[in-house]
């Protein structure tokens, strides 16, 4: 998800039960969050097609929408909002995605 390698993401998802689309890393980041942070819209679409949820939160309270907005990935934000990401969700710093984006100049 981080590199935007769509073929690898599809292969892993098609590989069976060993991969969960919402499995988080040690920081609580799901593949969707990682793809959103990097602005990989096509990977995000495949993850949604395979059951990813836009509302998952990382250990610090950030959502995929926070990560996409913070990094200036407008198309990723559009995809997340179309998949009903909570635009009012706040992270541990008390910021929603819009405030987070503004704070980072995006």
UniProtKB/TrEMBL annotation:
The reply to whether Repeat figures as a keyword in the UniProt entry is yes
Q: Which residues cross the membrane?
A: none
Q: What is this protein called?
A: Uncharacterized protein
Pfam families with a match to the protein in the record: Ank_2
Q: Where is the signal peptide?
A: none
Q: What are the ranges of the ANK repeats?
A: 27-59, 60-92
Q: Which PANTHER family match?
A: ANKYRIN REPEAT AND PROTEIN KINASE DOMAIN-CONTAINING PROTEIN, ANKYRIN REPEAT-CONTAINING PROTEIN-RELATED
UniProt keywords, alphabetically: ANK repeat, Repeat
Asked whether the UniProt record includes Membrane among its keywords, one would answer: no
